[in-house]
C-alpha cells in the first residue's frame, strides 16, 4: 500500500486481515508509522513518489498494490506531487511485478482541481494492462472520524436523496467495495 496508514487505508487493512488472516501488508509512507500493530503489517518509510526508493523496500512478490496517497492543494505542483506521482509509482510497480490488480480511491466531492485530477488518474490507470479496482466516494465518514467535514454528514445525507454525488459514504462500505473489487477474479 502506498500511504495506507491514514483513515481509509487503516480500515481497508483491518477489514482485509479479517477476511484473510494470511495476508501480509507492506505499508509505504513518508513517516513509516502506523497505528495498526500486527505481525502481518510491515511499515516502511520511503518517499511514495520515488519508484526506486519504494521498490528497494518491497518483497520480491506482490499480489496487489493500492494507492491511498492524495490530498487537495491550491498549488498545482503540490497537487501533482500529492496525487499523480504516487499513482504513477503504483502503476510502474504493478506492471513491473505483474500484480493481480491495482487499487485507487478517487473522489466525487471536493475542490474541482482535486476531483478532476483524481478522475484523470483513474482514466490513465485504466490504460494499464493491469486491472484497476477503483472507488469514487463522496464524503467518507464513520469509525470515529470527527472533523469539520463530517459535521456536514446530516445535510449531505438529505442532499444525497436528490444527488448521488452528494451522498456521504461510510468508510466501512468504501473499504468493503475496494477489497471486493481488488480480489474479484
Automatic annotation (TrEMBL):
Which Pfam families does the UniProt entry name for this protein?
Epimerase
Q: Where is the NAD-dependent epimerase/dehydratase domain?
A: 2-96
Identification of the protein by name = Udp-glucose 4-epimerase
Q: From what organism does this protein derive?
A: Agrilactobacillus composti DSM 18527 = JCM 14202
Concerning SUPFAM superfamilies, the annotation shows:
NAD(P)-binding Rossmann-fold domains
Query: What sections of the sequence does the record tag as coiled-coil?
Result: none
Amino acid at each position: 500500500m502506498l500511504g495506507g496508514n491514514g483513515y481509509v487505508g487503516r480500515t481497508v487493512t483491518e477489514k482485509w486481515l479479517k477476511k484473510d488472516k494470511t495476508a501480509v501488508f507492506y505499508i509505504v509512507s513518508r513517516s513509516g508509522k502506523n497505528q495498526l500493530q500486527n505481525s502481518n503489517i510491515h511499515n516502511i518509510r520511503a518517499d511514495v513518489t520515488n519508484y526506486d526508493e519504494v521498490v528497494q523496500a518491497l518483497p520480491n512478490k506482490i499480489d496487489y498494490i493500492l494507492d491511498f496517497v492524495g490530498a487537495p492543494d491550491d498549488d498545482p505542483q503540490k497537487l501533482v506531487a500529492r496525487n499523480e506521482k504516487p499513482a504513477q509509482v503504483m502503476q510502474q510497480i504493478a506492471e513491473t511485478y505483474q500484480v493481480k490488480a491495482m487499487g485507487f480511491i478517487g473522489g466525487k466531492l471536493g475542490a474541482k482541481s482535486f476531483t478532476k485530477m483524481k478522475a484523470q488518474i483513474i482514466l490513465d490507470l485504466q490504460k494499464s494492462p493491469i486491472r484497476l479496482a477503483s472507488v469514487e466516494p463522496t464524503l467518507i465518514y464513520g469509525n470515529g472520524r470527527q472533523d469539520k467535514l463530517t459535521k456536514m454528514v446530516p445535510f449531505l445525507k438529505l442532499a444525497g436523496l436528490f444527488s448521488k454525488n452528494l451522498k456521504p459514504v461510510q468508510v466501512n462500505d468504501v473499504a468493503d467495495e475496494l477489497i471486493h473489487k481488488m480480489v474479484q477474479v
